[in-house]
Design goal:
Length: about 150
């Protein structure tokens, strides 16, 4: 995660400080902007940011073991499967059921003003309708299975 964040942030910062944004998009004068202390001269900072990202990923992985290893497991295997998850009812029923079991989101749902519910329901129904086949709602579920040996 550290490598991804560092790579993304450094890329965005260097792009903003470079000629792609400063000269090509913002139309600043190259001679003037290149005198600034923060100016980065490459149009594509990938050589720098990708290397920085990979190195930070290596360092972090060497300094901080995987959570499974910290918990005392070895020979850890992980498998991800996408399986069908079918709701044998209508779009409206699955949304009603979702609201009834959504304890973590209940306070958020309760704050929706009454006059907004028609629009909220229409938007949610439209999103769920993408999975509707005429007789049931066919979602997919991603399951992650893990196993290992306790040390």
């Amino acid at each position: 995660m550290t490598a991804i964040v560092l790579g993304t942030v450094s890329t965005l910062v260097l792009l903003y400080c470079g000629p792609t944004i400063q000269v090509d998009i913002l139309k600043h004068d190259l001679a003037e902007v290149s005198k600034q202390w923060w100016y980065f001269p490459l149009k594509n900072p990938c050589l720098i940011t990708m290397t920085l990202s990979f190195l930070s990923g290596i360092v972090v992985s060497l300094l901080k073991p995987e959570p499974a290893a910290e918990a005392g497991f070895a020979e850890v295997e992980e498998e991800t499967r996408t399986v069908p998850w079918t709701w044998p009812g209508t779009v409206e029923e699955v949304w009603e059921y979702g609201q009834s079991i959504s304890v973590p989101f209940r306070s958020l749902l309760e704050r929706v003003p009454r006059h907004e519910w028609e629009r909220v329901n229409a938007d949610v129904h439209a999103a769920i309708r993408e999975y509707w086949d005429g007789s049931s709602v066919n979602f997919g579920a991603v399951l992650v299975f893990g196993s290992g040996k306790k040390l």
